[in-house]
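Lab meeting, item 3. Inverse folding demo.
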């Protein structure tokens, strides 16, 4: 897996220093500055403390199976901003190399909010997932098929869990799904649009076209 984060700090030098401080107990394999500089922090074959308590597709120890990438951004705490073109360009180059070497499917390139929906919102609604999807480095926003595929909300949540999310907090899981696939409306409510999106994602997964 690859898990995307933002630093949530106003200064990238302070963020990097914190990730290098053993007492902070937080780290990542890479950090990309707003100028597009790539900073290597932890060897890929080593465990980094970036995901915390998390879950994805049955894995309750995401740190043991993932590479963490921090994007320099003040985050929602300090004034959330769009990610820069140099950042995204560097990220695309880095990700292309990582997913090829480790044979990581697009569905396993996720945000911190996807694996820890009750605790985290990063990399947030302004992260350019579409740019990654254009280069086949992440799943694209799914198209919508006609009709309501789920009989009720219970069926939707079971499908959401099947796709990969921890649904122990249903509203948080829905917000995470919306933040990833429909960032213009993040209200935690199950509606027809996200039902159709999830159904399309599962169909593509079952057809084997999500790698």
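The presenter then showed the designed sequence:
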């Amino acid at each position: 897996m690859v898990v995307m984060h933002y630093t949530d700090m106003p200064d990238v030098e302070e963020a990097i220093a914190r990730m290098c401080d053993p007492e902070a107990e937080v780290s990542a394999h890479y950090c990309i500055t707003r100028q597009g500089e790539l900073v290597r922090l932890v060897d890929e074959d080593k465990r980094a403390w970036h995901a915390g308590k998390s879950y994805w597709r049955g894995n309750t120890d995401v740190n043991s199976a993932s590479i963490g990438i921090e994007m320099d951004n003040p985050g929602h705490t300090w004034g959330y901003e769009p990610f820069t073109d140099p950042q995204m360009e560097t990220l695309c180059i880095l990700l292309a190399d990582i997913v090829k070497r480790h044979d990581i499917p697009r569905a396993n390139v996720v945000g911190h909010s996807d694996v820890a929906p009750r605790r985290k919102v990063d990399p947030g609604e302004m992260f350019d997932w579409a740019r990654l999807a254009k280069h086949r480095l992440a799943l694209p926003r799914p198209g919508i098929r006609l009709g309501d595929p789920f009989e009720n909300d219970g069926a939707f949540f079971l499908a959401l869990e099947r796709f990969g999310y921890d649904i122990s907090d249903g509203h948080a899981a829905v917000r995470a799904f919306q933040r990833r696939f429909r960032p213009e409306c993040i209200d935690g409510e199950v509606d027809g649009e996200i039902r159709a999106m999830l159904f399309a994602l599962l169909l593509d997964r079952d057809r084997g076209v999500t790698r």
